[in-house]
């Protein structure tokens, strides 16, 4: 399930793999040119008598291959459990050997905003071992507000269907300019046809929905696999319902406060951590791409191209989009050839040739749902001056991407305050969580994962992997893959935090990004 990343031109990820091309399964084609390129726990009354009636799945854009689907009514507002309800779409790929079945493995691909109905198929397609398929019914679901689960919209115009990440700001005036855009986006969310749902699209409510799914499945406990933002969702579930967790895997972990302003600024740290891998790769292939014969030369070329495109865009790609595209390309090594070809074309002043219209409803929903969760989960600074200060600071600390990561989001102008305090991740509960984390992750840097590890205390063990990129499981590191599979299928977890050394990469083709741009979804 390793992640192929995507952040605009490639920020998406949600997959990676030999593997779990979850990203391809859940990421969306966005509107950018690419040359080659996601308190209190409910009372026992939440244990509803609803059961899931399995049947054919809705059109998922991919063959069902044994997948079956159902819908479940859940409270819109868990503070009013008898009030209005919304529907949650759930999918199931049954265990291949009922005699060996342990239970259910609920999964989330990240985002927030990533649809999850096809995730069981993506896991299987990524090479999930037979023992995993025997041990669990694989359960996917579209989180509230997403896909087939009462989807929300912000009616974003076409020029905002690339990424929710703000653009790189070179001056205080450009922060003010972005603030105008962010304010308008927040207003669109507040006045859209789905505005009545807006305050209730939160991580805590999605975790409560997960427990309703558990009850409807008739299971006393659930196992869980979450990638990227899905790690925060899993941490929140394990905090609200600690005794209802069986075996929990958090892959590429956000900090314990989720995708808040701190995590957003950390994208710049992740870029700086990860970029040297691409620089070394490109330098070894200077005869092919001409981007520099040393990592230092490739790094200098990044700044040269960004500055040049700031002044004179090429084929619609300006410096802001170039930086964002490069960030997305860092999600997976397989993106490197396509990213290098894009640099090569821009270096020569050759416009990218393939433009993909971004008026896809799934992209609209993905980015809208992402904003709902991110802005509802935590209270963001509201002062434009705060973002101007942070941009100026991070442009110096993290010159490659800091002035984008610290720029202002629509959350600064969000129409609703959080409806409840943010869930505080704690160490209360059984010791049943395994975290796996690449050392050089562009989207969820190691720094945040270490904070979550500390918050979970003895509930968790952490396996760090000497890899770059976003997403670990079913990727190229057999040590990490075995650690996850052994834990899920046999309950064998490292007694202490452990480390997986770097392994030689298998021969594999470059990512095919010749005619599309992937949406960045942490």
UniProtKB/TrEMBL annotation:
Domain Peptidase S33 tripeptidyl aminopeptidase-like C-terminal residue range list: 400-500
A Pfam family recorded for this sequence: Abhydrolase_1
All copies of domain AB hydrolase-1, residue ranges: 104-286
Keyword field contains Hydrolase: yes
Keyword line: Hydrolase, Signal
Source organism, top-level taxon: Bacteria
Gene Ontology molecular function: any one: hydrolase activity
Family, as annotated: Belongs to the peptidase S33 family.
PANTHER family reported in the protein's UniProt record: 2-SUCCINYL-6-HYDROXY-2,4-CYCLOHEXADIENE-1-CARBOXYLATE SYNTHASE (PTHR43248), TRIPEPTIDYL AMINOPEPTIDASE (PTHR43248:SF29)
Protein name: Alpha/beta hydrolase
Species this protein is from: Amycolatopsis bartoniae
């Amino acid at each position: 399930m390793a992640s192929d990343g995507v952040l605009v031109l490639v920020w998406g990820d949600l997959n990676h793999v030999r593997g779990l091309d979850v990203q391809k399964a859940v990421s969306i084609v966005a509107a950018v040119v690419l040359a080659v390129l996601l308190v209190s726990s409910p009372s026992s009354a939440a244990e509803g008598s609803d059961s899931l009636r399995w049947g054919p799945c809705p059109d998922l854009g991919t063959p069902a291959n044994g997948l079956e689907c159902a819908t479940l009514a859940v409270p819109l507002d868990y503070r009013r459990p008898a009030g209005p309800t919304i529907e949650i779409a759930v999918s199931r790929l049954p265990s291949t050997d009922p005699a060996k079945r342990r239970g259910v493995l609920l999964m989330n691909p990240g985002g927030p905003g990533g649809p999850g109905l096809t995730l069981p198929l993506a896991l299987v397609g990524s090479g999930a071992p037979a023992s995993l398929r025997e041990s669990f019914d694989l359960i996917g679901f579209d989180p509230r507000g997403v896909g087939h689960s009462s989807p929300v919209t912000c009616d974003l115009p076409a020029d905002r269907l690339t990424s929710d990440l703000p653009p790189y700001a070179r001056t205080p005036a450009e922060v003010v300019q972005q603030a105008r855009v962010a304010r308008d986006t927040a207003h669109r969310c507040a006045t859209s046809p789905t505005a009545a749902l807006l305050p209730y699209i939160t991580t805590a409510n999605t975790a409560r929905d997960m427990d309703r799914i558990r009850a409807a499945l008739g299971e006393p406990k659930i196992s869980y696999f979450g990638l990227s933002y899905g790690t925060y969702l899993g941490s929140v579930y394990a905090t609200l319902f600690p005794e209802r967790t069986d075996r929990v895997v958090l892959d590429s972990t956000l900090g314990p406060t989720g995708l808040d302003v701190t995590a957003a600024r950390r994208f710049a740290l992740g870029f700086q951590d990860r970029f040297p891998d691409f620089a070394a790769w490109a330098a070894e292939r200077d005869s092919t791409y001409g981007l520099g014969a040393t990592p230092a030369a490739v790094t200098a070329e990044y700044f040269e191209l960004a500055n040049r495109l700031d002044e004179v865009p090429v084929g619609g790609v300006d410096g802001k989009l170039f930086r964002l595209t490069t960030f997305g390309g860092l999600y997976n090594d397989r993106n490197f050839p396509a990213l290098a070809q894009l640099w090569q074309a821009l270096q020569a002043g050759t416009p990218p040739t393939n433009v993909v219209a971004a008026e896809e409803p799934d992209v609209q929903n993905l980015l809208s749902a992402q904003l709902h969760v991110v802005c509802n989960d935590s209270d963001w600074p509201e002062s434009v001056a705060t973002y101007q200060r942070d941009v100026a600071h991070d442009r110096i600390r993290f010159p490659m991407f800091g002035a984008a990561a610290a720029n202002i989001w629509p959350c600064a102008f969000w129409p609703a305050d959080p409806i409840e305090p943010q869930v505080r991740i704690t160490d209360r509960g059984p010791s049943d969580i395994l975290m796996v984390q690449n050392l050089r992750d562009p989207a969820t840097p190691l720094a945040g994962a270490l904070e979550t590890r500390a918050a979970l205390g003895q509930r968790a063990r952490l396996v760090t992997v000497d890899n770059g990129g976003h997403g670990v499981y079913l990727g190229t590191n057999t040590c990490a893959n075995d650690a996850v599979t052994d834990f899920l299928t046999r309950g064998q977890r490292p007694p202490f935090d452990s480390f997986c050394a770097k392994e030689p990469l298998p021969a594999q083709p470059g990512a095919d990004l010749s005619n599309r741009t992937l949406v960045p979804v942490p």
